[in-house]
Request: fold
Amino acid sequence: MISVLNGEIKYVGEDNLEILSGSIGYKVFCPQKTLGDYSVGQSAEIFTHLHVRENALELYGFKTRKERDFFEILISISGIGPKGALGILQAAPIDLLKKAIASGDTTVLTRVSGIGEKTAQRIIIELKGKLKDIVGEDGGDLREGGDVIEALTGLGYTRAQAQQAFGKVPENIEGVENKVKEALKILGK
Reply:
């Protein structure tokens, strides 16, 4: 099992990157928000999951071990494949996804292409028992986070840019409007 790659980024594409580790190049599929953090020539450490199918071996890569572990939990759900799991990780930050699952809110999950209400409910039912480290069972700022990300994408930013900016908004800022303003300041830098 290939679990971590260290090396030089040789190529960054739309849904993957190539990393040269030792004298071997690996093609690694990544969430778009992760791809935006890398550039050609940069040295990187990528946490990976080797997905084995009948006719292919595919590597999926993540910036943190936490993202990789969550990805592995997602693909353990019947009907959720690696591409669907990447879509879910792209939809919102992990903490927001965990709060959505803890509170039973399907709105974040149904924003992902290919995931309807029934699939989102199944994901929530199956994951509630698997995510023992969920903090904040009330999901208080769950809808706010989704609304901030949606507002930013409505203003023309990519979902990855919106998520990164939202992740940098200080926790003491309250209200969707104030969080959007702060995220816009972050994006303007």
Q: What stands out?
A: The CA atoms of residues 58 and 108 lie 27 Å apart. The chain has a mean pLDDT of 84.
